[in-house]
Design goal:
alpha+beta; Ribosomal Protein S5, domain 2; Butyryl-CoA Dehydrogenase, subunit A, domain 3; 3 domains; four-stranded mixed sheet; two-stranded antiparallel sheet; 6 strands
Length: about 290
């Protein structure tokens, strides 16, 4: 299954202790590069997150962010009883000197450390993080596969175009060889001395060897078949296709360098255009 490297997914989980949200986005990259944005409460899970993502994603520059919002009601908040007792003692000591002193409840709650957030069980939080990340990864990979399906259709169309051009060039070869023989015979006929028929055949064979592209056309057909096979693989195939396109380019360049006919020259240019179009899309494939 072809997967694009660009995708976005997000999710959220609610629990009595609060809410946990996650966002995952990716762009093209030669390798896997994962950037994390985590609150302090989730820093301990960084290794877990990296390992879990690497199991399912092989390429792309990924940005993963998690946010933790503690619940505000119920048992989520509590007073630091020891600190509150100490503040009460200080207030009692000051009462004799400042009889009109009043303590504002709202101001008291703002005292650092007086109101504490109830701690979340580490195992419970870990399970929530794992479940949410798996959910987001499922959506993320599904988005990559949807985009990858469109890329596969595009590349399949271009591969069919390459196969058509190679087949057309093969049909032209008998005419090109006949035209080359006629051209060589005409040149030799213009010489003052009659040409040796044996020499004529030798020259013709040498010229035909120089322009022979049967092997290049055979290899192009092989590469097209291999590309179709790779596109159907369930694994990440971006690097394989990138390497295979180098072979496509090699055959197209050789076909152009051996060309002695305007038709094959145009065919070589058209091949390069199709190969470049495929290469641009392969840069987006995982």
């Amino acid at each position: 299954m072809i997967r694009s490297m660009t995708a976005y997914a997000a999710g959220e989980r609610l629990a009595p202790w609060g809410s946990l949200s996650c966002e995952l986005r990716a762009v093209n990259h030669r390798y896997l590069e994962l950037g994390l944005r985590l609150p302090d409460e989730l820093r301990a899970f960084e290794g877990l997150l990296r390992e879990r993502v690497a199991r399912r994603v092989t390429r792309g520059k990924l940005d993963l962010s998690l946010r933790l919002r503690p619940a505000l009601g119920g048992e989520a908040l509590r007073l630091n009883a020891d600190l509150l007792d100490r503040l009460a003692e200080l207030a009692a000591q000051c009462d004799a000197r400042f009889p009109r002193m009043q303590v504002d409840f709202a101001e008291l709650l703002r005292h650092p450390g007086l109101v504490e957030q109830a701690e979340i069980d580490a195992d419970v939080l870990r399970e929530a993080v794992e479940a949410l990340l798996d959910q987001v990864l499922d959506e993320f990979i599904a988005a990559r596969e949807r985009e990858g399906g469109k890329l596969a259709e595009f590349m399949t169309s271009r591969l069919d175009g390459i196969a058509d051009i190679a087949a057309q060039v093969r049909e032209w070869l008998p005419d090109i060889r006949a035209a080359l023989r006629q051209k060589l015979e005409t040149r030799l006929a213009d010489l003052r001395e009659a040409a040796d028929p044996g020499r004529l055949e030798q020259e013709l064979v040498l010229h035909l060897q120089k322009i022979d592209v049967d092997e290049e056309l055979d290899r192009l057909a092989t590469h097209v078949g291999e590309a179709h096979r790779v596109l159907a693989l369930p694994d990440a195939v971006g690097r394989r296709l990138d390497f295979l396109l180098q072979e496509f380019n090699r055959e197209a360049n050789t076909l152009g360098s051996k060309s002695v006919d305007a038709r094959t020259t145009r065919a070589a240019v058209e091949l390069k255009v199709l190969i470049e179009q495929i290469r641009e899309q392969v840069q987006n494939i995982e």
